[in-house]
Design brief:
40% helix, binds 2-acetamido-2-deoxy-beta-D-glucopyranose, alpha/beta, elongated, 392 residues, membrane, BC10-like, glycosyltransferase activity, transmembrane helix, transmembrane, 15% strand, 4-stranded mixed beta sheet, 14 helices
């Protein structure tokens, strides 16, 4: 019965169709050509005069307009390399896995230093009374440090030489992270130098870092010679010049971000091989570019784009301002702790300045928790005003 009906329907179609077919056989080519011409004309016009305002779009509905503009410049879609596909999927999975909840979350303070740390006594005051909520790691690249505070004793990690500008600096950072990641209670990781000092009391720093939803990795686009000028095309195809970023190395990051750095070998190897001083007549500094470029490519919304460690570049010299004992005053510390805008000065001829408010979970807050660079002679002054400034 069923197949019979279907067959009859089919027959019906066949019988009905010949009529219109015959009728249009002569007129059809003409109106098809006219239609094709009109559509082509419309497309040519739309290409030459792309709709400038929404009003123009409404002629074809706003959605139609979007489809049309999407068509026009055929975006050169790049196919990912095998390594890139593998790398991106691992990174994506780590970022999508919520961090394991630990009863006792700690901040890992990781010190990258050539030798002894001149401000251990200051850090001791900072840590004192907060046992169990932090851990300390020291990577001393030149000589074995002599520790004067018990918080630092036996906290040295196995270390290697660090050559300025080269990948060995990143290696040292990764070594510190790997050591700190071994403790599952470490949830936030701060990289500090021997010339860094804390600007706030422990609770303020702990809450600022532990309850943030992003990492504080410094990152900006510098079109000048000390930014994009250091880029090498050997980094293609994975890293294009438009992806290249700059930023100070002193980061603080969430556990997931520390993990994706451990997982990365693709982008790391590009910077190891093609970003170093003297390569192709350029002075590429791996630690100023690897992290900012990597994070802005794989998780741009996950980083703040500024560092919680303050440094004063306003003198515009090769090195930032270093504070001597006589410079260290309560007023100086109060000034630094009240800054709530981050400023990046590019190296292009216009010395363009990029300013953005420091946002903590969407709320405007002071940018800095730590500051550098202080001469060792500043210790006594810092200790004197410590009780004062940790009240900030
Ligand atoms: C950081 O900059 C990137 C662009 O490079 C941007 O997409 C991201 O939203 C910025 N992060 C924050 C927290 O604003
Ligand atoms: C602190 O900031 C004020 C206002 O910007 C400035 O006049 C003063 O010189 C600063 N003091 C120090 C020690 O930086
Ligand atoms: C962080 O929190 C702010 C405010 O709630 C929100 O706007 C932002 O998207 C969050 N960022 C991430 C990476 O979750
Ligand atoms: C402590 O802070 C007060 C202002 O509240 C300031 O006048 C004083 O000089 C500070 N003491 C030191 C040792 O810096």
């Amino acid at each position: 019965m069923k197949s019979n009906k279907v067959w009859r329907l089919g027959m019906g179609d066949v019988q009905i169709l010949p009529g219109p077919r015959h009728r249009s056989s002569t007129k059809r080519p003409v109106w098809i050509i006219a239609l094709v011409l009109m559509v082509s004309l419309f497309l040519v016009c739309a290409y030459i005069y792309p709709p400038q305002s929404n009003a123009a779009c409404y002629v074809f509905s706003s959605r139609g307009c979007k489809v049309l503009t999407d068509w026009l410049p055929p975006a050169p879609a790049r196919l990912y390399t095998d390594e890139e596909i593998a790398s991106r999927i691992v990174i994506r999975e780590i970022l999508n896995t919520p961090p394991a909840q630990t009863k006792n979350a700690k901040v890992a303070f990781m010190f990258l230093t050539p030798g002894s740390l001149p401000f251990e006594k200051l850090w001791e005051k900072f840590f004192s009374g907060h046992e169990g909520r932090f851990s300390v790691y020291v990577h001393a690249s030149k000589e074995k440090p002599i520790h004067v505070s018990h918080y630092f004793v036996n906290r040295d990690v196995r270390s290697h030489q660090v050559v300025w500008g080269k990948i060995s600096m990143i290696d040292a950072e990764r070594r510190l992270l790997a050591n700190a990641l071994q403790d599952p209670e470490n949830q936030h990781f701060v990289l500090l130098s021997d010339s860094c000092v804390p600007l706030h009391k422990f609770d303020y720093v702990y809450n600022y870092l532990m309850y943030t939803n992003i990492s504080y990795v410094d990152c900006f686009n510098d079109p000048g010679p000390h930014g994009n000028g250091r880029y090498s095309e050997h980094m293609l195809p994975e890293i294009e010049m438009k992806d290249f970023r700059k930023g100070a190395q002193w980061f603080s990051m969430k556990r997931q971000h520390a993990l994706i750095l451990m997982a990365d070998s693709l982008y790391y190897s590009k910077f190891r091989d093609y970003c170093k001083p003297g390569l192709e007549g350029k002075n590429c500094i791996a630690d100023e570019h690897y992290l900012p470029t990597f994070f802005s490519m794989v998780d741009p919304g996950g980083i703040a784009n500024w560092s919680v460690t303050h440094v004063d570049w306003s003198e515009r010299k090769w090195h930032p301002k270093s504070y001597r004992a006589q410079d260290v005053t309560y007023e100086l510390v109060r000034n630094i702790t009240s800054i709530d805008l981050s400023i990046h000065v590019t190296s292009d001829e216009k010395k363009e300045v990029q300013i953005q408010p420091c946002l903590w979970n969407g709320i405007k807050r002071p940018c800095y928790l730590f500051a550098r660079k202080f001469y060792p002679e500043a210790l006594d002054k810092l200790l004197q005003i410590f009780s004062n400034y940790t009240a900030i």
